[in-house]
Amino acid sequence: MAKKLVIIDTDCGIDDAQALMMALAAPNIQILGITCVYGNASVENVCQNILRVLSICERDGIPVFQGCAGPLVGASSSRTDHFGTDGLGDVIKDKDPRWKEKIQREHAVDAMIRLVSENQNRVSLVALGPLTNLALAVRVDPCFPQKLKDLYIMGGNMEGKGNLTLCAEFNFAMDPESAYVVLEEFLCPTYLATWEYASRNSLTWEFFEELINQDAPAARFMKTITSKCWAYSREAMMKKRGVYFPGCGFVSYDSYAMAACVDGTVVTESIECPVRVELQGSMSRGMLALDRTNTLKKSHKVFVLTKCDSAKFSQLLLESLRQPCNK
Ligand SMILES: [Ca+2]
Fold it and tell me: Which residues, by range, are in coiled-coil regions (predicted)?
């Protein structure tokens, strides 16, 4: 069976690392390249985090490209209060002083355009961070979206619930203009794993313990980087996510978008409708609006995921931490 060709655009925090491992473990996926963007950490830290994950999974041959360091509009910023300053929980002491030599010289946006142009209508793009690299790609090459097979995004919200600001989800709130551009101009089949989708399809904390206590280097790595991170603390999350989603358990956000790409049958229900990102609101800037009554008269619809097959999703997560594997 021909493998699915994938480019992963990421701001590598802990859940991005988990999602990347899911792609690395999937026998039907071939990763053409990984493009880095600021977000959970500075883009320099993101690059180093990706190299580390690839090294642990013994897949160092996959090219890594450095991309944007800040949003299209407004001050350059990365948020370091969720997964620590370095994006991976601030527990890794040994840094690779020669990491820059392992990053490709080509810019992430150029690499994305080249790889997709070389494999037209065959590449799935999985976007796990702020959408700045994607927005720039369509500005540099207006035909870029139509050369894609499909697009999977972790980002946005479908119920107006925010986790960075009152009404906006982290990845969209970090760069609302880029999220707007992508959802207006990428007319390829598009699948959105929103904050509420992930939260409403959470797994139990007992499963999380089983996941990270597997006997493999990737699992040990995940156990280490989640060990001091409040976002993986049951008590902290009960106070934060639990306000919106009572009983909400362990959530690996980016893994939901990746799982939809790896195995479409993981998604059991979705809403197909036009969407638009709010740019003006004083409280809702970066919020995703679902247009279920066609008020905006847009022709392009996206799939807003709503229900997930938890058993299949759990299995993908378990396999993702049994690495390195012989692939
Ligand atoms: Ca991410």
Answer: none
How is residue 205 written in tokens?
């904390």
Cα atoms in the 13 Å half-sphere on the side-chain side of 293: 1
Above 90 in pLDDT, residue 245? no
Catalytic residue (choose from 11, 110, 141, 150): 11
Contact at 8 Å (CB) between 248 and 242?
yes
How far apart are alpha carbons 307 and 325 in whole angstroms?
A: 30
The pLDDT value given to residue 172:
97
Kindly state the average pLDDT of the residues 2-23: 97
Mean pLDDT in the chain? 94
Q: Are 53 and 18 in contact (CB under 8 A)?
A: no
Please give the pLDDT value at position 261: 98
244 C-alpha vs ligand 1 centroid, how far in Å?
A: 21
pLDDT band at 78 (very low <50, low <70, confident <90, very high): low
Rounded distance between C-alpha atoms, residue 35 and residue 259, angstroms: 19
- Rounded to an integer, the average pLDDT of 175-200 is 97
Is the CA virtual torsion 265, 267, 271, 274 positive or negative?
Answer: negative
Domains and CATH numbers, the chain: 4-320 (3.90.245.10)
204 CA distance to ligand 1 middle (Å): 21
For the chain, the first-to-last Cα distance in angstroms comes to 14
Cα 153 to middle of ligand 1, angstroms? 10
The tokens for 181 are: 């551009």
Strand 275-277 and strand 150-154: the pairing is unpaired
Inter-residue contact 168 to 175 (CB < 8 Å)? no
Q: How far is the CA of 88 from the centre of ligand 1 (A)?
A: 11
Q: Could you count the other beta carbons within 10 Å of the beta carbon of residue 143?
A: 11
- Angstrom distance (rounded) from CA 170 to CA 162: 8
**Rounded to the nearest whole angstrom, what is the distance from the C-alpha of residue 327 to the centroid of ligand 1?**
25
Ligand 1 centroid to Cα of residue 297, in Å, is: 31
Contacts of 319 (CB under 8 A, 6+ apart): 22, 25, 26
Residue 15 a catalytic site member: no
